[in-house]
Fold each of these.
Amino acid sequence: MIIISIALGIILGFKIIESPKRMIDRMMMVHLCLFVISAGIVVTVNRTFIQHQDFIYIDTKRAHPLTHFMAMGMHGNGGYYRPDGAMDDKIKSPVARNQANVRLIQDRFRNFNGLTNYGKFLVQKQINNTADGTFGWGQEGTFLQLNNPDNTKLNRSFIRKMFANQGTVQANENFEYHFIVQLAWCSTLIGLIGVVNLHSWKIQFLKYSVVGFMLFLLLFEGGRSRYVIQFLPIVLILTSVGSTRILMRIWRNN
């Protein structure tokens, strides 16, 4: 929600700079009002539910600060790092916990020995963030179990051959599934090329949102394509527009 709000703010800022007398058109103002109202309702309902639910006890003092996820995003491939979580769990004070993570960020940045190496790390992390079209399917252990996993007849079906291996999700051992999904993901990314030269404020808003999410994954915990799922709807909207433009251009040329 924050990233989308920032993207919308940037669009509004450019609109005001572009035509300060007109400020913003009426339709854009309507969309802005609807967005603000919808966001307010979602945030209010979410906070109210959390404050009044009695399913679990939530101790906000034990929450990980943003600096925790930033420090984690600077280690290894930028993904989850269990020792960082263990360190935070041992520190009871929220202030001390945040300070410890700030020191960890500083140490890890120094270990890169300059902006050049840190830039190389971010390039590789971006590849890790977006390269896997399966979004990590089957890479989190064997916790995704199918019903009747030992059923020979079901295991021979097309669906199970595509998504599982002997009743258990195992994408790494299933070349057919990985190939087809990767092909679909590459087609999705190619479709984004079709919106590069579109300048309407709606498309610009979506593009800035995608860039914002990618920057977020670069600065914080990431390193795995499964994190793309959270802004995949925006990507799919853009690629549908871009793919349509590409196909129409090919059709006209033929």
Amino acid sequence: MRQNEFVRKGKEHFETVILPKLRLISEQVVNNMMIFIEGSVAYGFCDEQSDIDLDYYIDMDIDEDIRQSIRELFTGETYWYQGVRVSYGFSGAYWKFDLLMNDEMDRFWNEFDPYALNNIMRAIPVWDPKGSLALSQKKVECYPDEIKKKIIRGLWVTINDSGQYNFCEALKRNNIIEGRIYQYRAIEAMLRLVYVLNNQYFYPTKWLSAGLVNLQKDFGLRDALDKIAVSHCEEDDYKEFMKVHENMKQFMIKHDSIELECIDNYSMVFQKPFHIFSTF
């Protein structure tokens, strides 16, 4: 219910505050413009700390002076609407809508950002007379097979190198701080991988664990995280981590998620294309 209320406020804010000012700048631009809600409201995770993130994309060539006027409208002030802050985004550039609209899919997948993909798929349209958002979502509804394998290989490297190996090695040396760094680096990669193995895009880090409740299969990760959160024993944390590791490993073997030699020996990943990234 809270999500619906935030969406309603976002739409009302656009219609009453932003749209009239846009029409004064250019009616033609308004007819070729997409406004959408992204972030925690679109994810359904909004709470009393959340704001309403509005972003926009213009599907036409326009003069720079017009573009600057629109940019100033969206960046010049922070508005409050019915007690909720409304903030503005990246004017479409971050999401690479130009590439999607022009069907430059090879370039899009060469430059993609997983955070942007998740936002595109979960975005809620506020103003979209041309149906651009639905078209974009259709084009990126899932990773191409080889892109997906690159991501799985990269996450598996981090899970194993940081978690299975370096977390354990740090504990042997009683390097607790370094061990924790490796532990949570590996857990973040594991949290990302669980979404990919469920054929979903993962959230930015702030919402990674919140989305687990919506997954069909979590490989025991939710239970492990609950135990790790209250644990005061790094060795026990490692055991919980490795239980999830084994569950993921068996699933990937069964479903041929990546090559068997890469699953069994993560160093083999370095002989194949893989993708390691850091996002929000």
Amino acid sequence: MANNLMDYLPDYYNDVYEMQAIMNAQGDVLYKAEGEQFRLLLNQFVTQTDAKGISVFEDQVGIKPAPSDDLGTRQNKVLMRLLPPRPITIGYLRDLFATLKIPATITVIQRDAIVEAKSAEINSSQIENIKYLLNIYLPANMIYEIRVALNRAEISNDLKVGLGMWSKATTAVQANVSQFIN
């Protein structure tokens, strides 16, 4: 829509002050209404929502956002709950990781799904998303491992030896059996 209605005013209204004032006033209202309509349109799609729109989706699927979650994390949580069922393949899981912007690779060795990531590239909320997805999508006879490679690890060759002393004490007590005789 146009925010300047004067462009659509017929020529015979060019010198009419009242009509120009009406068009300018209505143009501002129309521009604000157009902005609201566009916002409502974008809030129909999970990946395009603002904070107000994502809260509606969260309420629909029963998600309570954490105070530290940003808009992208909240959108990913809603998307994971609303994903349509598809055949579970490694290709699908890789595409899903790419769609959700999870920097990890997944491989399957027999009945073990191995997810590998680097600690510099992945955060804890993305690891929680991986756990949720694998718990939902993997069959019951498969297990998964999440391996996060550390950025820097230091290995020392120190050998710690400790000395201790072990002792044992035993005692024997003679029982008084005279009280049991009738």
Amino acid sequence: MDPVSIFFFALASIIGIESNSIVSQKATITINPTDRTFEIHQEDLFAIIMTAEDSFSVEDELRQILEFHKNIERKNTDSLTVEEIVFTLNDEQLNTTLKGSYFDSTVLEDAGIYLDKITKDRFYLMNFPDWNIRSSDAVLKENYWSWPVDKTVTIIMEPFNDIPDEYRQHRRSILTYWKQQTGHQSE
């Protein structure tokens, strides 16, 4: 699973999504370990749709995300709380922002972020060059991004900058699906 999907759907057990196909071109993840809050801003939501079944999967996944706020019980687990998922339009792309809080830093492990088990003073995220990770708050040392446990960090990921042409031709914006499901009219 790619990092953008991991961050956006680390909450899948709450939302009830078993597999995901919606990803984003760019994700900006901000984690405040002092307040134990997170915000994930995803730009240009899309999916690779090659078959009718892929299209149905995307529709179902988006429906589950849109229905999420109707079920308050799903917003909380023992480890985290999802406060909101907000969709916004920017020209012809659909963006989303997810905000929440967590109760224990071990929940971040589902998103690939680990606390140094010995010193407990730093978080680590493995660097994968294809993910195009950058941050002005974290330091890339060897193959890991690292930041102190008492500082807010913002990490930007763009893992789909170089998708192969064979998949690029099947790249579809989620905007059309979102408009259909929300009844949003084109201006």
